[in-house]
Amino acid sequence: MNIKTGLSFKEILYHAKTTPSATASLIIWTAFSVWATIQSNNPWLFVVCIPFILGLTLIPLKVSKMNRNLSNDLLPQYIGSTKEYKISEITKDKVNEKVKLVGTLDKVIYGVSAKPTIRLKDDSGEIYANLIAPIPEHIKKGDTVELYGVVAKHYYLFGFIGIPKLWKPKIYGIGLVKP
């Protein structure tokens, strides 16, 4: 298995932008390794740290690329077979249904993983969606986009777990495209 296949410097920079927690971990671990090496005056300590530094770099890159490929593979299936809804039509009755929403990309939240949470708005309301892959580079906040995905439960208190009757619909997004 060749982990580095197809990774360009541009992709690495894009990944660093879209996965701030992985980038921060890499920077902190590298700085700690350099500091420990200097303090101990033992260059072998840094040599031992190299596999961890490479793992913190290459594993998130590979996972992000796999998720992007999965999104690219699934998106054509969704585009051809998914009914379009207004955001206000996404109710608790639609859980586990494939949906297409057209709206304005209002907010992008990058957390621990490379899978962003977005907020999409149309003239009938707004909804949050967790995407399986980073947003394509050509799509920016404020753009009109088509979101393809599956309606899921979002619990008010904890997100993915919580009190059974305290939830609202959200979307697990397969991908975004410009109309």
Give a verbal description of the structure.
The chain is an alpha/beta fold and 179 residues long. It has helices spanning 9-18, 20-40, 43-81; strands spanning 84-85, 98-109, 117-122, 125-131, 144-155, 167-177. It has a 5-stranded mixed β-barrel with strand order 2-3-4-6-5. Strand 2 (98-109) and strand 3 (117-122) form a beta hairpin. Helix 2 (20-40) packs antiparallel against helix 3 (43-81). The longest helix is centred in the middle third of the chain and has 39 residues, at 43-81. It is elongated and about 65 Å long. It starts with 8 loop residues before the first helix and ends with a strand.
Mind describing the biggest β-sheet?
Answer: 5 strands, mixed, barrel
Computed structural class:
alpha/beta
**Helix residue percentage:** 25-40%
Instruction: List the secondary-structure elements in sequence, H or E.
Output: HHHEEEEEE
Terminal Cα span: 37 Å
Contiguous low-pLDDT stretches (5 residues minimum) are: none
Provide a count of the helices: 3
Strand order of the largest sheet: 2-3-4-6-5
